[in-house]
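INFO  loader      accepted 1 record
INFO  loader      residues=191
INFO  predictor   begin
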Amino acid sequence: MAANINLSFEEMWEKIMACDSKYDGLFFTAVKTTKIYCRPSCRSRKPKKINVEFFHDIDEVEKAGFRACKRCQPKSDHSPQIELVRKVVSFLVNHYKQKLELQDIANHAGVSAFYLERQFKQATSETPRSYLEKIRIDKAVHLLKNTDRTNLEICYEVGFQTPSNFYKVFRRLQNCSPSEYRTLIRKEMQQ
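INFO  predictor   done
INFO  writer      dumping tokens
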């Protein structure tokens, strides 16, 4: 996969202890006792130093009889974090109308709520909640442009539980109220 890098055993050991993702794909950590290999950034429990062997090539480590870690998925081109974010975003887009708690999203993703929020924010600079609010407001904008539904109907249609929260989030993201937005859109269409 990658050319040999000039790191000693001790340096590679330090990288896996620090879960340093900058070295993902440059070398792999194989654990002799479990016959599993991982990325340097894997968050699984760390093995004893004497049970570790390092490989620079994924084919080489598999030829030696090791299998890929299910947690860090070293065979994947994407980091597990990216896969987690994709899974969560598709869930949010498909279930935006429902009342969703962070725990519901975490259950779907198969991780803890704390881990989900931390990983999602690290990858997107947003929380799952703020991302969900953006999806809901995008849907509301579409409905305001293309339907004659009332603001209250749209509020509940896009998954908000209370009108006050809908108006607050809409104003924060669009810099105007839903009514002001609809008026602006109608003026633009008439010109």
